Every structure is written in structure tokens, then in C-alpha cells.
Amino acid sequence: MKKYTIRDVAKAAGVSHMTVSRVLNNNPRVRANTREKVQKAITEMGYEPNAMARAFVTKKSQLIGLVVSDISNPFYAEISRGIEDKAFDLGYSVIFCSSDENTHRTEACVKNLLRTGVDGMIFTSVHLKEPAAEKLIADGFPVVLVNRKLRNPNCHYVTCNNFQGSYDATEHLINLGYKKIGIISGYSHLSTGLDRLKGYKKALEDHGIPQRPEYIIETSFSADGGFEAAKELLVLKDRPEAIMGGNDYIALGVMDAAEALGLSIPEDFALTGFDNTDFAARSRTKLTTVSQKIYEMGSIAVQIIVDTIDRKNLDYAHKVVLNPNLIIRESCGYQLHKK
Amino acid sequence: MKKYTIRDVAKAAGVSHMTVSRVLNNNPRVRANTREKVQKAITEMGYEPNAMARAFVTKKSQLIGLVVSDISNPFYAEISRGIEDKAFDLGYSVIFCSSDENTHRTEACVKNLLRTGVDGMIFTSVHLKEPAAEKLIADGFPVVLVNRKLRNPNCHYVTCNNFQGSYDATEHLINLGYKKIGIISGYSHLSTGLDRLKGYKKALEDHGIPQRPEYIIETSFSADGGFEAAKELLVLKDRPEAIMGGNDYIALGVMDAAEALGLSIPEDFALTGFDNTDFAARSRTKLTTVSQKIYEMGSIAVQIIVDTIDRKNLDYAHKVVLNPNLIIRESCGYQLHKK
DNA sequence: CTGAAAGCGCTTACAG
DNA sequence: CTGAAAGCGCTTACAG
User: Fold this and answer.
1) Which residue of A lies nearest to B256 if distances are taken between CA atoms?
2) What's the CA–C1' distance between B17 and C6, in Å?
3) Closest to A74 (Cβ–Cβ): which among B50, B63, B72?
4) Which nucleotides of C are covered by protein (CB under 7 A)?
């Protein structure tokens, strides 16, 4: 574990430490012959450049900060994996920090990451308004949003076309014959919640089905949220024939509520989710849902942020909107539903 | 965003940069009066110390490397969250690297983390033999294992008492009257798989129930693994009355297999899992399982590694073994089972 | 209690 | 194509 420096290598190779530095950085201004000599010394000694010294002098840590809602949420864990893999490929490492989607903690994360010296930050879960992220962007610090975006469109982001995904799911229910369609939506101060709600409303409108306010409930993207909301929706006198969950977790909560109330899916009402999470496909669930490219979102976000880090002053914003895919399973039935 | 240095602050406060450094490091050898002057300048200028310079000169990055099986697996994501939170409290940040439990990738992770300059590494998923981790330990590099341990006991680790958890679950089945108990176990080249298998065997032995080799299958800790193994176990002429899943994912696969074969749980056979994952408690699952303190394992691992980093030459190993808890749910029935 | 000197291991200019 | 000089922003000794 003896630590060699660039000077040790230089001495061994009989050159100056500058030449060693050039070899290390693949600078072409080194004679092939010299390069070989140096390379040989490097491998023989098992020399490894000191990352800290390098980061210090170049002012580049090769570190990306990831502000994630909660690393223990599988959806975000999958984005994180996409981020990790691509970062690895591009020579970066990633430091994560869970914000719990809480403004105060988000600020703490940002401060912490800044202190650590990351070259840029990726946010998975901003609110439409998120002062900590907006300040960074205003300061010209490299930032990419993934999954959710800010209200202010002037920034780099990668999202799913949530509007379209939700529109497609709604239309599918309509085509099956459902007219009384409720939605348990994620909070609309989050771009994902808002866009999915908009997609739902637009599909109803396009098919001439009037909106019914009592069929729309906003809640958190969680099974508990779905459970509570479903208990309200399912005891309505004029119960919806179909319920759209803002994501698969919400749908899961709806399933629990149905079981608690003695209702069957899809016999008593149809159900859809969003995200195509692992459990959606399981034999006990069979949830119609919208799949989005979760891993890819993370991967693309890294490409953009590295781009931004390398050529600082981009004067345009990268906006990547990925197309979702409706996955049809048994939870919404396959036939025209009549009442 | 103007970046000040320690010298700018010194000039503003009318002291030497050394005094500023002392204030920054809470060195007591500064007069209260001087300290205040410096503090004032620091806050007024919004000075932030340069982490890279500090890391470079102190040779301490305040970074912990986390080699995790797969960050997108909820079990590991929860460990990671425990690690993150405690690291944050202790002034460290964590860089993760997914190994996919593959020796080659594990080596790549270690190399990458070393290059990044982490002060220590935590491994969540070592095999009983894991050259990359063992080499680090042999070199005196701070390493803590969490969840799984190496065969070589001479290292720091935090695990659940997997033997006991499995023993308890087996005994519970025996007490309910089951005698034909099968196990679909995680691979026994992993300490978790091995210890759970041992607990099962010991419980049978203690209750005078002979082992039946055809009732024991090893597979990966995954739903797919459980599914395939269950299809073998459930078509045995003398089918087991109860199946123990090596973890909840395996149990989930068993449930799918049961459904595919038209069998009901617990009517046709009882089922247990391990980990008390989120879905185990859901109304469609109701899985008897063994809960372990996943988040806490991560948290404790960080305490140990920071301890190790700070006082390098510990000559004893921290070994923390947490007690699991049997959680009884409907999947194994509540009554004496007779055949 | 405070400061002047030296240096951590690299890279960025500048000469040749 | 190669090297000598200077410096990144801190901290670690060493003086006083």
C-alpha cells in the first residue's frame, strides 16, 4: 500500500514529473518512446494518481450529487441505478442524499453536497417551486431535474410524458365503455401529479364526458394515500366504475381498500396505476398501468449534466420528454362494461 | 458566488490565515476576542472552506464508499438509507456502487471507490469468500460488512441473527403441527442463506423431525428463484405441508407458483418468508415472516466505520448481531394442521 | 495565543 | 516534445 507520487514515477522513468503528468492525462505531446518508459514505470510501481490532489487543482471532483426523494423507494432507487451506471461509464461517482421531499431537508442536502464539492446536481423530486434548486440554477451551477420538473421551464430536465400516459390510460377506460371514471391523483404541486391530472381531464373532455369534482381526489404518491382516498370514493352513492391511481402505490392502496370493503377488481370497478412497478405484473395484482423508462431517465440525466459540467455556458435548456407505454392487464377488465 | 479563500478572510479580519484556519477547526488556542473578529468576517463574506483543498491536505475525504448489491433492490435501498442518515449526522457523505453480487463488478466498484478517495468502505452483500473485500481488510483499509459476512470472522460486521430467525420460524411451523417442512433457501455461499438453512435444520433436529433432502432447494434471493423452486417442490408426490422462503421475494415467487398450480395458502400449504418487506403485510399477501432491523444495520455499520477511520489501528473486530422478530400472519394458518 | 515557513501532489502556463 | 517555475487553498509542524 506504499503510496507513490508522480515524482517517484518520474525518477524511476528518468523524466520530469511533468512528463508523467502528461502521460497520465493522455496528452499527445509526448514521444511514443518516452510514453512507454513512463507507462512501464507506472504499472511496475502500481502507481495510482491521488484523486484529491487532482480534484483540488483542477477544481473538478468527478462527483455528481443526487438529491433523491427517498433512496429506499424502489421507483427512485431505479432512477438512481440508471444514474449510477451512466456516471460510472463517464468517469463520475455519485453521492446521494435523501430529501424526503421536504423543503428544509432539500436545502440541507444541497448544502451538504456543495460542501462535498460535487460538480453538479441531479434532483429527482422537485416541487413545482423549489427554492434550493432554483437558486443553484440561477447561480449557474450545473443542475438537471429528472422525473419531476419545476414550474420555471428554463432548466435542463428529463421526464416522462405524464400527460400523455394518463391521457392514454383514461382513453383506454373510455374505450372499454367506462364513463364514470374517478382519479386518485398525486398532489398537483408536483409536476407528475399535475400533468397526469391534466391528461385525465383532457381525455374526458375530448370524449365529451363531463368532469365530476367528487371523482377527483389528490393525495400523496403512496399506498396509504390511495387507501384513504379510495375509502371515500368507493362509498359514494354513485360509485365510479373505474378508478385511476396516480401511481402504482396509490393503486395498491385502492386494492387494499377494495378488499376491506368486499369489492372485487375488475368486477366491481376497474383500476389502473402508473409506473409499471415490479408488483404490477404479479399474478395477485395484474394491474393495468403506464410504464415509463425509469432507468433511462436517470441515465439520460447524467449525460446532460456531464455535458453541462464540461461546457459550462450552455445558453439553451435540454428538455427530454420520454414516451410512456400503456400496459393492459386484467385490473380494468377486457369487455364493455355495462351498468 | 465569488469564492473567497482563507487569506481573504484573514485580510478582512486583520489576522494571519493561520488564525482563520484555527477558528475554522475549532482549535481552542485562539483568544475569544480574535475568534469573534474572524467569525464575523467569515459570515459577512459568506466564506465556505474548500472541501477539496482540505481533503487533499488532510488526506481525509469525509466520504464513505458503499458497495451494495443493487441499489434498486428495496432491501438494500433501506440499508442504504440507514447508512446515509447516520453518515450525514457524523459529517460524512456516501458514494454508492452497485456490485450485482458479481465478483468482477465488485472489484470494479472497489477500484472506483478507492480512486475517488473514500475513507472507508461498507459492503452489504459479500460472498463468504470475497477477494476484493478481503484484500482491503488485509491492507488495513477500513471496511465494515453489513447484512452478510465473510467466512473469515476477523473483521467488522453487522448482521441479523439469521440462524435464530430461521430457527424461530421453523419452530413456529412445527408448533402449529406441520411436520413436512420444505425450505427454498438462498444460496449457501452467502452467509445469510447458509445461516438460515442451518437454523431450519437445527430446529428440525431439536424437534426430532428427520431432514428430507428433497425438501431443500437452494436458489437466488429472488421471486423468480422462488417460483422455479416452488414448482419443483409443489409437484412432489409427498408434497410439503409448509414451505419456508429464504426471504420474502422467494416467498412471493412461491405464491405465484401456487396460483399457477391452483393451490391455496394456507389451505394447501403454509408459507413463510424472511425480511418483513413492505408487501408482506399487505392484505393480498399476509405473509408470516421474520423482521430484521434493516435500517439500523446500516446505521450501526456507519458508526463502526467512522470509529475505525478515526482510530485506525483497532486490534479487535466489532461484531454486531441483531435479533430478528417472528411476525405471524395468515400465510401459515393458525391451527394444528392435520393430514 | 499568534504567525512565518513549508509542503500536500498535482496541473497550468511559460520557456526552450 | 520536454522541463523548471509557480501555485491551487488548506494544514502541520515549528517558533516566538
Assistant:
1) A283
2) 15
3) B72
4) 1-5, 7-13
In chain A, how long is the greatest CA-to-CA distance?
A: 89
- pLDDT tens digit sequence for B77-97: 899 999 999 999 999 999 999
pTM of the shown model? 0.90
Q: Which residue has the cell 405465484?
A: B256
Q: What are φ and ψ of residue B195, in 5° steps?
A: -65, -35
With cut-offs at 50, 70 and 90, classify the pLDDT of residue B333. Answer: confident
Q: By the 8 A CB rule, do A70 and A98 touch?
A: yes
Of all residues in chain A, the one with the smallest CA distance to B259 is A283
Domains of chain A (ranges; CATH) run 6-49 (1.10.260.40), 61-160+294-323 (3.40.50.2300), 162-292 (3.40.50.2300)
The chain A residue lying nearest B286, using CA atoms, is A256
A256 CB neighbours in chain B (<8 A) are 282-284
Nearest nucleotide relative to B48: CA against C1': D9
Residues of chain B in contact with residue A95, where contact means CB-CB under 8 angstroms, are: 63, 93-95
C-alpha cell at B202: 437445527
- The answer to whether residues B286 and B333 touch, using CB atoms and an 8 Å cutoff, is no
Rounded CA separation A229/A258 (Å): 11
Buried b (16+ CB within 10 A) or exposed e, B181-207: bbbbbbbbebbbbbbbbbbbbbbbeee
A243 in contact with B at a CB cutoff of 8 Å?
no
Report H helices in B207-247: 223-233
Q: How far apart are the first and last CA of chain B?
A: 76
Cα–Cα distances in Å, from B308 out to B79, B83, B109? 20, 15, 21
Question: Which residues lie across from A97 on neighbouring strands?
Answer: A67
Helix (H/G/I), strand (E/B), else coil: B121? strand
- The pLDDT tens digits for A42-94 are 998 888 889 899 999 999 999 999 999 988 788 998 999 999 999 999 999 99
Which residue's C-alpha cell is 456490485?
A: B99
